[in-house]
Amino acid sequence: MALFLDFPFHVDGRGRSAETAEDDHIRDMIFQVLFTNPGERVNRPDFGCGIKQLVFMPNSDALATATQFLVQGSLQRWLDSVIQVESVEVEAVESELKVTVVYSKRSGGGPRRDVFTPTGPV
């Protein structure tokens, strides 16, 4: 079983860099794409989706639809070699944004459904 560095980076109980399994690593990569603002990474300025900024936009069906396309396009652009995006749902409730992503790993396995908020995977 392959292990990957956990996100966010931290030290585990043994005093080493914390590691995680592939499924958690993929969930971490999706979180990074969703909640990184374009321009935030110096060496990759176009990386990210920047949906945290959308929490302050007027809530409407048009915004929800546009956000779904933005999220799906960003995931396909940055993680296409890792996952196949099946569907994306975006829900804004007051100041909280919930993004539900249904995807399949390219390496095999059935579809997964993960829910993300700006504070981390739910």
Give the topology.
Elements: E1 4-5, E2 19-20, H1 22-35, H2 61-79, E3 83-93, E4 96-105, E5 112-117, E6 120-121
Antiparallel strand pairs: 1-2, 3-4, 4-5, 5-6
Could you characterize what this model shows?
The protein has 122 residues and is an alpha+beta fold. It has one domain: Nuclear Transport Factor 2, Chain: A. Helices cover 27% and strands 27% of the residues. The chain is built from two helices and six strands. The strands form two sheets. The protein has a four-stranded antiparallel β-sheet, covered by helices on one side. A two-stranded antiparallel sheet has the order 1-2. α1 crosses α2.
Relevant terms:
two-stranded antiparallel ribbon, globular, 2 helices, alpha+beta, four-stranded antiparallel β-sheet, single chain
